[in-house]
Write a structure and sequence with these properties.
With 191 residues, the chain is an alpha+beta fold. The chain folds into 2 domains: 56 residues, no CATH class; 93 residues, no CATH class. It is built from 4 helices and 10 strands. The protein is globular, with a radius of gyration of 19 Å. The termini are far apart. The relative contact order is 0.12.
Length: 191
């Protein structure tokens, strides 16, 4: 039986193996059910799903971010009504907060069109079509003392990229200071 994975959008993917131009083995997920299917996850690998539902196979690496540190960000997102639909991704030394493209007012506008009568249909539509953009990140700067720095994404064409927001501090302190601004005009005043 091939390795199968269903992403958050409800789409099934199957693990395939192929060769690179140099003849090395590579793994990828595809909705196709034939050709190079893999029957078990290779040792040292794990399935990963991005906030936007992209499925991949990645090498297992030791995590530089502790679970309680990523949970501190998740708890802070849950505290604010406007950030509850944000997603968090941990990669390497970084915790990234992703903001959804559809806000509550967008959802209410969609509801007013009368396209979706039952609320469950709308929830399913949003779940499958929602896109996420990275807007805020926290990176470990001192692994012994567990200190992080915060950065926000700048969307100005000439300055596009990550802008530093803070000096090194504990993740809980940084989360309380910056997470509340995600999705608000005040976010663009942070720098």
């Amino acid at each position: 039986m091939a390795v199968e994975y269903t992403n958050r959008k409800g789409k099934k993917y199957y693990l395939h193996a192929g060769k690179t131009k140099k003849g090395k083995r590579r793994y990828y997920f595809s909705p196709k059910t034939e050709g190079g299917l893999v029957e078990e996850i290779p040792e040292g690998y794990e399935i990963s799903e991005s906030p936007n539902g992209i499925v991949s196979l990645r090498k297992i690496v030791e995590k530089a971010v502790k679970e309680d540190e990523s949970n501190a960000i998740k708890r802070e997102l849950e505290r604010h009504e406007h950030t509850k639909t944000c997603r968090v991704e941990v990669k390497g030394k970084t915790i990234t907060v992703f903001e959804p493209d559809k806000k509550e007012e967008d959802i209410n506008r969609i509801m007013s069109f009368g396209i979706f009568t039952p609320r469950a249909d709308l929830a399913e539509y949003i779940k499958k079509s929602q896109r996420y953009t990275p807007v805020l990140r926290f990176t470990v700067q001192d692994e012994k003392r567990r200190l992080f720095v915060a950065q926000r994404y700048c969307f100005l064409g000439s300055r596009e990229g990550w802008i530093p927001l803070s000096r090194r501090d504990k993740i809980g302190t940084l989360a309380k200071k910056y997470v509340k601004h995600v999705g608000k005009e005040s976010f663009y005043e942070l720098y």
